[in-house]
C-alpha cells in the first residue's frame, strides 16, 4: 500500500531539516551498518546481483520499481510493526496485550516483563526471535535474512525484581532494509559500552524506551542516544504525557530537534533522514 501524500510530505520535511544542518559523524560510517554481521561467514553474492548504484549494498539490491523506504507503525508500548518495501513485516517486542492487526512474518521478543513477550505467539508467524537464551546468562545470537530484510541482535543485561543483574536478558534488535539500519533498544537497563556502540555500527533510526524508570533513566537514555549519533529517534515505552515530556524536556535543543506527529505511521527513506538528530513522537494506536 503506497504511503499517503501526508506521509510523503513528512519525509520531505525531514529532508529539509537535513539540508539545514551539517551531517552527523555517523553518516560517514560504513554502508553496511552492524559490525555484528562481519562476524558471520562471508556470503558469496553473484555478480548479477551487484547493481551499479552509488551507496547500494550488494546484499540488498534495489528491486526495479520498488521504492527504497521502510514503513514504521507504532502499535503501542514497545511494539512497532515494521514493513519493508518488499512486504516483509516485523512486530517488535511481540506480546499478548499489544499486537498489530496483521500477523507479522517475524516477531522479536524480550522478557523483562510480560508486555514484551508472548508464551503463545500466533502460529502463522514464520520466525519468532527471542532476545534471550534458554541457557541462563548465555547470549543469544541472531543473523537472519527474510526477503529484503536482515535482522541481528546485540545482547544486553537487565535488572531483576531485587535489583540484581540478569546477564544477557535483553537484546537490542537491529533491522536493515532499504539501506536503513533500525535499532530497537528493547528493555535497555544500562549504558552502552564503546564496544557495544562499535558493534552496532551505523544506526539510522533508534526506537528508544523513554519511561525513565523501568528501563534506563532519562539522563542515561539521552547519553545512549548521543553515543549512537543516529539521525532519527522515535520514543516508545512511555506511559503518559508526563513521562514523555520529562524525556523531551531534558533533550538539548541545540542537539536534538523535536517533532510531534498525529499519525502513528511513518515512511522513511535514506534520502529523508535529517542531518541534525531529530526526535519524532508518534501517537500510540
UniProtKB/TrEMBL annotation:
The keyword Signal applies. Residues 1-22 form the signal peptide. Pfam families: Lactamase_B_3. Gene3D superfamilies: Ribonuclease Z/Hydroxyacylglutathione hydrolase-like (3.60.15.10). InterPro entries: RibonucZ/Hydroxyglut_hydro. Keywords: Signal. The keyword Transmembrane does not apply. PANTHER family: UPF0173 METAL-DEPENDENT HYDROLASE YTKL. This is MBL fold metallo-hydrolase. It comes from Ancylobacter oerskovii.
Amino acid at each position: 500500500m503506497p504511503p499517503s501524500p501526508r506521509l510523503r510530505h513528512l519525509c520531505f520535511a525531514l529532508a529539509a531539516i537535513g539540508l539545514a544542518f551539517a551531517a552527523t559523524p555517523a553518516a560517514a560510517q560504513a554502508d553496511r551498518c552492524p559490525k555484528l554481521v562481519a562476524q558471520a561467514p562471508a556470503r558469496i553474492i553473484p555478480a548479477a546481483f551487484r547493481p551499479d548504484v552509488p551507496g547500494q549494498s550488494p546484499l540488498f539490491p534495489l528491486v526495479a520499481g520498488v521504492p527504497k523506504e521502510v514503513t514504521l507503525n507504532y502499535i503501542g508500548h514497545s511494539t512497532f510493526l515494521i514493513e519493508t518495501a518488499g512486504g516483509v513485516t516485523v512486530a517488535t517486542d511481540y506480546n499478548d496485550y499489544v499486537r498489530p492487526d496483521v500477523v507479522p512474518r517475524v516477531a522479536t521478543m524480550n522478557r523483562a516483563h510480560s508486555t514484551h513477550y508472548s508464551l503463545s505467539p500466533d502460529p502463522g508467524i514464520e520466525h519468532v526471535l527471542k532476545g534471550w537464551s534458554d541457557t541462563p546468562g548465555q547470549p543469544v545470537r541472531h543473523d537472519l535474512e527474510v526477503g529484503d530484510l536482515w535482522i541481528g541482535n546485540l545482547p544486553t543485561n537487565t535488572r531483576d525484581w531485587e535489583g540484581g543483574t540478569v546477564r544477557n536478558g535483553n537484546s537490542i534488535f537491529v533491522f536493515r532494509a532499504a539501506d536503513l539500519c533500525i535499532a530497537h533498544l528493547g528493555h535497555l537497563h544500562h549504558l552502552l559500552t564503546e564496544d557495544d556502540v562499535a558493534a552496532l555500527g551505523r544506526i539510522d533510526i533508534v526506537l528508544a524506551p523513554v519511561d525513565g524508570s523501568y528501563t534506563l533513566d532519562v539522563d542515561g537514555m539521552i547519553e545512549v542516544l548521543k553515543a549512537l549519533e543516529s539521525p532519527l529517534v522515535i520514543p516508545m515505552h512511555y506511559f503518559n504525557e508526563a513521562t514523555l515530556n520529562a524525556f523531551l524536556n531534558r533533550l538539548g535543543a541545540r542537539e536534538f530537534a523535536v517533532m510531534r506527529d498525529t499519525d502513528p505511521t511513518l515512511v522513511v527513506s535514506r534520502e529523508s533522514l535529517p542531518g541534525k538528530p531529530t526526535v519524532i513522537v508518534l501517537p500510540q494506536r
